[in-house]
Amino acid sequence: MLYWLTALSDGGDFFNLFRYITFRAGGAFLTALVFGFIFGKPLINVLRKKQGKGQPIRDDGPEAHFSKAGTPTMGGLLIVGALVTSTLIWARWDNPYVWMVLFVTLAYAAIGFADDYAKVSKQNTKGVPGKMRLALGVLIAVLAALWATLHHPGDLQNQLALPVFKDTLINLGFFYIPFAIIVIVGAANAVNLTDGLDGLAIMPAMIAASTLGVIAYAVGRVDFTEYLDVHYVPGTGEIFIFTSALFGAGLGFLWYNAPPAAVFMGDTGSLALGGALGAIAVATKHELVLAVVGGLFVVEALSVIIQVLYFKRTGKRVFLMAPIHHHYEKKGWAEPTIVIRFWIISLILAMIGLATLKVR
Q1: pLDDT greater than 60 at residue 204
Q2: Cα angle for residues 39, 43, 47 (degrees, 5° grid)
Q3: Using an 8 Å Cβ cutoff, are 330 and 317 in contact?
Q4: pTM of this structure
Q5: Paired residues of 161 in beta bridges
Q6: Within a 10 A sphere around the Cβ of 111, how many other Cβ atoms?
Q7: Which one of 89, 162, 167, 255 has the lowest number of neighbouring Cβ atoms within 10 Å?
Q8: pLDDT 10s digits, 159-202
Q9: Parallel, antiparallel, or unpaired for β 169-171 and 159-161?
């Protein structure tokens, strides 16, 4: 919205700053951060009052989690509220990719909110039926994939870009849409599975979003893409403002989610964040890089898939408990140890993913 202040500029004054994505990204970060600090405590008080017993705790979960009973959930409302508000203030409203990512974020947040509400109101851990959640998630991903494809340059439509390999594209044709759907739905559910410990999901999501934001800024500039030998996707630079807002919103939330958490993000936050990461990857044509940058989420999701398939086949378990962060809890690792070590892994993977911009 503030971009339109450039209409008041003569090219050499303060208003000219609003032309620059980097300036507006900084503003988006600070706006989202301040939003989180201002509204965090009041929101937690409201959630605690409305929810009473808070988020239900699984009976078969680690014993350490029983002490968390009564902690309110739906803290994702703070993240999404700060993120959306800040993005609308600082991003250009005529950019289709910004609206696509916002649409996915809000739509998945709505699914998560319904799931959290069902869990809290019924005081059980089932929530919205899994098939319904999946169907709605796929529908949202279909619309987002079509949206992105429609606005991609003609030479990139339905193409899969391979990282590291210079100028290499694979034409998926009709199969690109199903592939993009898997990326968005898979990312949303992978982040959701990771959200099991205080602060575990939010920091890796912030790290992954920041990395994708840098990539979006790079592939949205002709000079950068020529230097880096990556594919130019006009308009994606504005996504950097969204990811900067996400980082600020994440820090604001982490202030209250740091162990011991005063609030959980719930599915409201985890599905929204995961969906946003998938949407950004599709918009920037870096779907495969997301698997590296968000490698922690991939491992968490794979641990569940492996556990379920192996148990159905043999009646035995590969992990003491899935997702894998619970496996380490069962082995006696302290919660902060798991969280911080997983943060470190996320940062390492992000650096590897970012390196693919130059390694050709």
Answers
A1: yes
A2: 175
A3: no
A4: 0.94
A5: 169
A6: 22
A7: 167
A8: 999 988 877 899 999 999 999 999 999 999 999 999 989 999 99
A9: antiparallel
Rg (CA), the chain: 20
Question: What does the angle CA 251 – CA 58 – CA 332 come to, to the nearest 5 degrees?
Answer: 75
User: What is the structure's pLDDT at 17?
Assistant: 84
- How does residue 306 score in pLDDT terms, banded at 50, 70 and 90? very high
Looking at residue 238, its pLDDT comes to 97
Residue tagged 């130019």 (tokens):
232
Torsion over CA: 136, 137, 141, 144 (sign): positive
Long-range contacts of 321-330 (CB under 8 A, 24+ apart): 321/61, 321/62, 323/193, 323/194, 323/196, 324/299, 324/300, 325/194, 325/196, 325/197, 325/200, 325/300, 326/61, 326/62, 326/196, 327/303, 329/62, 329/64, 329/197, 330/62
Task: Tell me what the mean pLDDT of segment 245-253 comes to.
Answer: 98
Measure the CA–CA gap between 160 and 157, rounded to whole angstroms: 9
pLDDT band, residue 15 (cuts 50/70/90): confident
Question: Nearest 5°: phi and psi at 73?
Answer: -115, -170
Widest CA span in the chain: 72
Q: What is the token pair recorded at 286?
A: 């870096």
List all residues 6 or more positions away from 337 whose beta carbon is below 8 Å from its beta carbon: none
- Cis bond leading into 62, ω under 30°? no
* DSSP assignment of 224-293: HHHHHT----TTGGGHHHHHHHHHHHHHHHHHHHSSSPSS--HHHHHHHHHHHHHHHHHHHT-HHHHHHH
| Cα gap 106→282, rounded to integer Å | 17
What mean pLDDT value characterizes the chain?
Answer: 92
**φ, ψ (nearest 5 deg) of residue 169:** -125, 140
Which helix (H) or strand (E) segment is 99 a member of?
Answer: helix 96-122
